[in-house]
Design goal:
alpha/beta, six-stranded mixed beta sheet, four-stranded antiparallel beta sheet, 10 strands, 33% helix
Length: 212
Amino acid sequence: MLRADNLTFAYQASDRPYHFTLEALPGEVTAVSGASGAGKSTLLDLLAGFATPTSGTLTLDGEDLLGFPPETRPVSLLLQADNLFDHLTAAENASLGLPKRTPKDEVRQRVSAALAEVGLAGLEDRPSAQLSGGQKQRVALARTLLRERSILLLDEPFSALDDETRKTTRELVGELTRRHGWHTLLVSHHADDIAALASRHYRIVEGKLERV
């Protein structure tokens, strides 16, 4: 279980601090919603290690995560923008999820398997600039698979997609979460995304998380 217990943070001493407490189970999607500026991005920054809380705990299966810097924390982040390099192929972008010293034969094998798992078999050599929005998000998911990290943070990942692509990408996220036992945290203001994916739902109200 991923558990944040009273993670407290304020950008300035004069600001009202945020206090975040939540639980996320493996194989499930946990949704977080809230008004613009409520603190959704702040929560993700705390979980990913980009911000440091003044107090509170963050644990995964009882192990303290706060001592880990962002690069070694077991967290992948998928944003609304896919963050692919357009001059690289789908396979080259996905391979960025692997350690740099991975042997070339292993890279090819693992990248092909990851792209096949997200429905992009045969598109390994296609330049990312020629992929659709939905295909780019699938490449980003393949990169997440290759990182083999158990926490997936999703920050409005479907907002730029059309309705049909959003639905199929959403279904893929749910399937991968269950199959790989990810602790997936979805930040979204779209009620249909939350209804379709989330097993539990929190809303940020006045700097605190409330279970919906």
